[in-house]
Write a structure and sequence with these properties.
The complex is a heterodimer. Chain A is an all-alpha fold. Chain A contains twelve helices and no strands. Chain B has a domain of about 160 residues: Rossmann fold. In chain B, the strands form two sheets. Chain B has a six-stranded mixed sheet, with helices on both faces. In chain B, a hairpin with a 2-residue loop joins strand 1 and strand 2. The chains are: A mainly alpha, B alpha/beta.
Chain lengths: ~290, ~260
């Protein structure tokens, strides 16, 4: 226990120290991204499309793999894993959205196909990429402690895009989530706003993959928003609570994993899962109390 | 002379090989209240969706206030069944009613005028005190009235209601009917229903839809005709209400 507390002190020292920028960058990136996750998580949970977000996150490995393969094969230095993941996320979002709008009965099939194909293509591209071997695990599980200054800038820019676009279109996105058909009847492009929502989810997942990895990404979008939904019945409030929870989980995860030298992403997700479990218990307890 | 609210001119529609509506012609005059009845699968909902421009007819022509359904649908306030919505979706009554002004959102905000229109629409259906009540906390009848308020907030001249009293208990249904009585004075109403009481109270005329459409005056409806149209469904509704009046609530639906 004493060693843990000592390690915790070292974590806060590292955050404050001007010489150990990595921990500070990781913390700032986590805090900025939390706002995005809170906003997008609110839509994902209330529209019940977490499976779409999961498919998009898994498809990102395909984009990352392709970018590594192309950049090494053709010396396309501009073809970075970040660009690959953005292209893959947006493309998967648009394909899933288009199929969902045109033929609802095929939605689950296309989600499954994109989910598995993205992962498979990513692993194969990485395998066949020339040059030194790349371990796909770094993308699958991520590592927030490897956040660079460039990553921090990208996180801030992508996060700002998601926040501004959502703010300008909030009412239309909410209406599309509640009643797409009515939005269409009011002469508003419902399909466009649904696809926009999926693209925003895609961009947020790209941010998450850099922090927690592909597998754990969906947990940080869903769990804080699902916890927040237990305590509020206004969407903007759910988003705000989810963003604050996400900040707490990210900071807590970093603070715990630093002294214990455990992987940060899984620790953050376990924190989020425990709090969600407690929120469920509180809700059940309240309901029983009300009945009694 | 102004164009009718809705005009179907020799309209046919089919889903794949299955014919749903054949050579349907009728019109609904402005200010009229028309009930649409018929057996399940007879084409009632398809009729509404064609009028809204959500489906394209295979043959024939549809006009809404003299315009194509795509252009005229903005003049329609569509009120679907409340039960099709996720009751846990985190919005309150005012949020939903404001959706009726969605096409007027500028730079992400509703104007003061939009908010006043929403408030007035809620007052018109008697829900001004429930403005900030979450959708999940409203009763089935209140949810249905919120959806009507949303349709009114659009400034619609024609209300299309799809089985508004389905899945609503009898007390709430009575409140809902009072709201509709009031609305008849300001809008054309076309209402799909299986409820004979609703037809006798609200309808000026009845469209009987069973792949083809026949218009009847409400007074012309008699037991034999209804039996033909409903295949016995009206008896179930009548039975439910009769049992309720005699204190047997086993068949009542509560939300």
């Amino acid at each position: 226990m004493t060693e843990f507390l000592k390690g915790l002190g070292e974590f806060f020292d590292a955050v404050a120290s001007p010489t150990t920028a990595l921990v500070r960058y990781a913390l700032i990136a986590g805090l900025i991204a939390s706002v995005t996750f809170g906003i997008v998580g609110g839509f994902v949970v209330t529209r019940r499309i977490s499976y779409i977000a999961a498919a998009i996150s898994h498809s990102i490995l395909g984009g990352i793999g392709a970018s590594i393969f192309l950049s090494r094969s053709f010396q396309w230095e501009w073809c970075t894993p970040l660009l690959g993941s953005i292209v893959a996320a947006v493309a998967s979002a648009l394909v899933i959205g288009a199929v969902s709008l045109q033929a609802k009965e095929r939605e689950d099939t296309i989600i499954g196909a994109i989910w598995a194909t993205g992962m498979a293509a990513g692993v194969l591209f990485i395998y066949f990429a020339p040059g030194p071997a790349v371990n796909p695990e770094s993308f699958i599980f991520g590592n927030i402690l490897l956040t660079s200054k460039l990553d921090l800038t990208i996180t801030a820019v992508l996060g700002a895009i998601v926040v501004v676009v959502t703010a300008l279109n909030y009412h239309k996105l909410v209406a599309v989530c509640f009643d797409e058909e009515f939005v269409h009847l009011r002469g508003v492009a419902a399909s466009f706003y649904y696809l926009l929502l999926l693209c925003l989810i895609g961009l947020s997942v790209v941010l998450l993959v850099r922090l927690t990895g592909i597998i754990l990404a969906i947990a940080l979008i869903v769990l804080p928003a699902a916890t927040a939904a237990r305590f509020s019945r206004r969407l903007w409030m759910i988003m705000a609570i989810a963003a604050v929870l996400c900040m707490i989980f990210t900071t807590g995860g970093l603070a715990f994993s630093y002294p214990t030298q455990t992987p940060t992403g899984p620790v953050v997700v376990i924190f989020a899962a425990i709090v969600y479990g407690l929120a469920l218990l509180v809700k059940i307890g309240r309901r029983r109390g009300a009945k009694a | 002379m102004s164009a009718p609210a809705i005009k179907f001119d020799h309209v046919s529609f089919r889903y794949g090989a299955t014919s749903v509506l054949e050579d349907v012609s009728f019109s609904v005059e402005r200010g009229a209240s028309t009930c649409v009845i018929g057996p399940n699968g007879g084409g009632k909902t398809t009729l509404l969706r064609l009028a809204l421009g959500l489906l394209e007819p295979r043959k024939g022509k549809i006009e809404v206030f003299g315009e194509s359904p795509d252009d005229g649908s903005r003049l329609i306030g569509y009120v679907p069944q409340a039960m099709r919505y996720d009751p846990l979706f985190p919005v309150n009554a005012r949020d939903i009613v404001l959706m009726g002004r969605l096409d007027r959102v500028r730079f992400g905000f509703y104007s003061k005028e939009c908010k006043e229109a929403a408030r007035a629409a809620l007052a018109e259906v008697g829900l001004e005190r429930e403005e900030t009540t979450p959708f999940s906390n409203l009763s089935g009848g209140q949810r249905q009235r919120v959806l009507i308020a949303r349709a009114l907030a659009t400034g619609a001249d024609l209300l299309l209601l799809d089985e508004p009293t389905a899945n609503v208990d009898l007390t709430v249904e009575a409140q809902f009917l009072d709201s509709l009585d009031h609305l008849r004075e300001r809008a054309t109403i076309m209402l799909v229903t299986h409820d004979i009481d609703l037809i006798s109270r609200l309808g000026d005329s009845v469209l009987c839809v069973n792949h083809r459409v026949h218009r009847h005056a409400v007074g012309d409806l008699h037991g034999e005709l209804l039996r033909e149209i409903f295949s016995g469904e009206h008896r179930l509704e009548h039975d439910r209400k009769t049992r309720h009046q005699h204190g047997d609530h086993s068949a009542c639906k509560h939300d």
